[in-house]
Write a structure and sequence with these properties.
The protein is an alpha/beta fold. Helix content is 44%, strand content 20%.
């Protein structure tokens, strides 16, 4: 089980969002090489601007584990988390964050700059399957125009 394998699972979630006319971002939480939670953007369906893929997946993982911290888990998300989701990642104390495409417009780096917005023990891997993740976003917004 590789980072690419789990990013493909996050992409499946992103495609669900795409099909539901949500911004196509997907996420999965992995613990001991098993997916314990999944999420995709649901802001339109729930009429909730905080219903991002990361928030949905993290909440499901907290509930599945009966814990508010996930130091041994990895969050895979198809697009760079926004600053709100970076805060949730910080408070989750997640062990690793792996994301695909950068988000220059709304990603955490725009707000955080060079400051590390995650827990000090959280590892970060960027750019896993970034072309595939970015292509889905581009197709979504192309279809909206």
């Amino acid at each position: 089980m590789t980072d690419e394998y789990f990013m493909m699972q996050a992409l499946k979630e992103a495609r669900i969002a795409f099909d539901e006319e949500e911004i196509p971002i997907g996420a999965v939480v992995v613990l001991n090489k098993k997916i314990i939670a999944r999420g995709h953007n649901m802001t339109e369906r729930l009429n909730d601007p905080t219903a991002h893929a990361e928030m949905i997946a993290l909440t499901a993982a907290f509930n599945a584990m009966g814990s508010k911290y996930l130091p041994e888990a990895t969050l895979y998300v198809t697009v760079e988390p926004c600053f709100m989701c970076a805060g949730a990642v910080y408070w989750s104390k997640i062990g690793r964050l792996v994301y695909g495409a950068d988000d220059e417009k709304n990603g955490y780096k725009k707000t955080a700059g060079t400051n590390w917005p995650f827990h000090p023990k959280t590892g970060l891997i960027r750019g896993v399957m970034k072309e595939e993740c970015a292509a889905l976003m581009k197709l979504f917004f192309k279809n909206k125009r």
